[in-house]
Design goal:
alpha+beta; elongated; two-stranded antiparallel sheet; 18% strand; 70% helix; 2 helices
């Protein structure tokens, strides 16, 4: 009976760590998506730099766009987080987004390390559970 209780506890721990792993994976996906957005912004800045005007699709809501013309490409409003944005030239904007990308990569590395730790713990707990289950199975066959 003691083995059964230990096995139940291990299964509960495995389930808890599996849920934690799933949350970390979601965070990793969000960070990767944000990095892709930052890369797209950087590419867009490269594409429009030095042009007097640029034709673009302007979002008007509900996933709809209207073709428009960007008349000034020398000033960019860049988000700096927490709902704040500042006006920068292309080089200043690139500098800010490069810093943001580095922070995102650092966060991604930390999340990947956390995921590896949780995965290792799950593996260890599963091995313990399998040992207890095998021992219990052996005891059952010896009794029979």
């Amino acid at each position: 009976m003691e083995d059964q209780q230990r096995l139940n506890n291990l299964i509960n721990e495995i389930n808890a760590y599996t849920q934690q792993s799933d949350l970390i994976k979601q965070q990793i996906e969000l960070i990767q998506a944000t990095i892709a957005e930052v890369d797209a912004l950087s590419n867009t800045l490269d594409d429009i730099e030095g042009k007097d005007s640029v034709e673009a699709f302007v979002p008007v809501g509900a996933g709809s766009f209207i073709k428009g013309e960007l008349k000034s490409t020398d000033e960019i409003i860049v988000s700096i987080g927490s709902g704040y944005a500042i006006k920068k030239d292309a080089d200043g904007a690139r500098e800010i987004i490069a810093g943001q990308k580095e922070e995102l990569k650092d966060s991604l590395d930390k999340m990947l390390a956390n995921l590896q730790q949780v995965t290792d713990i799950i593996g260890s707990l599963q091995a313990q559970a399998e040992q207890i289950a095998a021992a219990a199975q052996g005891n059952m066959t010896q009794m029979g």
